[in-house]
Structure formats: structure tokens, C-alpha cells
Amino acid sequence: MPRRALLVLLACWWLLEALSAQSAPEAYTLAVGRFGATDQEIQECYFNIGPGAMLALHPNGEPCVIARGLIGRTGKLMFVLDP
Question: By the 8 A CB rule, do 41 and 50 touch?
């Protein structure tokens, strides 16, 4: 009986591992660095992320409002694929 219980436990563990690996979305880091912009870029909603990336947002949108509050912070720009 203990051997059967161990096999059932291992099978459940394997199934949970397989399901969790499939549900994890694939993500790519596009840029890492300081989030910054000049005064004009802030008005037009253009933001630099480190030395190699720029993010352009709609000036009247909520993401632009959020981005303006992030000026001077350090972070990363990521792209996460839909599952």
C-alpha cells in the first residue's frame, strides 16, 4: 500500500509541474535603465528607458499619466506574450 501511495503522489506532482509550466507566460525584457524625459517629451508622452529604448504613449491616455509619475525611477520594459 505505501508503494501505491508514493506512485500516486509522484503522478500528482508530475501533473502539477506540467500544468504550471504551460501556464507561465513567455516574457522578454526589451530595455533596462532609468525612466526619463525632457519637459517637451513629457508633454508629448515620449519616455526614454535606459540608453537604448523609447516609449511613445497617447498623450490623453491613462498609461501616459502613470508614466509621468515614473520619471527618474529605474526599471525594465517587458513584453509578455498572451498564453
Answer: no
